[in-house]
């Protein structure tokens, strides 16, 4: 059961503002897919993003009694590798720093950031279930004084202006308007603070959303943005790119392995089609708050 949360309003403003946001919150409050929970159970890092890097093909030929677990563990390893690449781009972060995980899901990336840098991390999500789950993980790990998850809207977090030296969205920008999102990041990042996102975006060159991209939108109730939209919205909000990494080729093996796994959800073919036909990219963008 979900209990009323003391942060369900930020300065009197409700967390959920629109019917769309309510439908997204409801989706994530009800999501209990083994593709996420079984992977997270491997080591207690629960991710809501995809993987990068080559998989070990030997997992597909293992003995029947361990094959499934080996594939799950390998997919989880690739997802953790993705989060590590995101953290690599945050720059020099130390224990005195404070980071923001916008759209934190069940919290895996925040835990990894605290483990790596020793810093404070605040995660925000509009899903009460995700926040409760993530805070329980932080309690179990004994880091709930340093890693805190809040039921808040990433477009209006209520955190103080300039509070963070780093902030990221790990595959959550497709749920929001980028101009509103980057205005909020520019507000809450200190000058010189670093913003990083890993995202899927459609290719302006191929002209609008392909069928496969539309299928991904429908599956997750999201609105994938054009590649160009990211750079327009960053530039309009005092966020200056320092690094852009095309991770498309690096994520395809993850989707190939996932398609062969027992936890495939049916969205594997649209991802593989969209990436292979070039209508969609998996991109990391790092930008500095000037
Ligand atoms: C979900 O991760 C990720 C999104 C909803 C963002 C969509 C990403 C794009 C690159 C377009 P998840 O781990 O909850 O998804 P799944 O359950 O499919 O593993
Ligand atoms: Mg997943």
Tell me about this structure.
With 290 residues, the protein is an alpha/beta fold. The protein has one domain: Vaccinia Virus protein VP39 (Rossmann fold), CATH 3.40.50.150. It is 42% helix and 20% strand. The chain is built from 10 helices and 9 strands. It has a 7-stranded mixed β-sheet, with helices on both faces. Helix 2 (34-41) crosses helix 3 (64-88), helix 3 crosses helix 4 and helix 9 (248-260) runs antiparallel to helix 10 (268-277). The longest helix is centred in the first third of the chain and has 25 residues, at 64-88. The radius of gyration is 18 Å and the shape is globular. The termini are far apart. The structure holds geranyl diphosphate and magnesium ion (MG). The site of magnesium ion (MG) has 3 residues, from helix 2. Geranyl diphosphate binds at residues 33, 35-36, 48-49, 171, 174, 200, 216, 220, 222, 224, 265, 267.
Defining key terms:
single chain, 290 residues, alpha/beta, Rossmann fold, 7-stranded mixed β-sheet, two-stranded antiparallel sheet, 10 helices, 9 strands, 42% helix, globular, binds geranyl diphosphate, binds magnesium ion
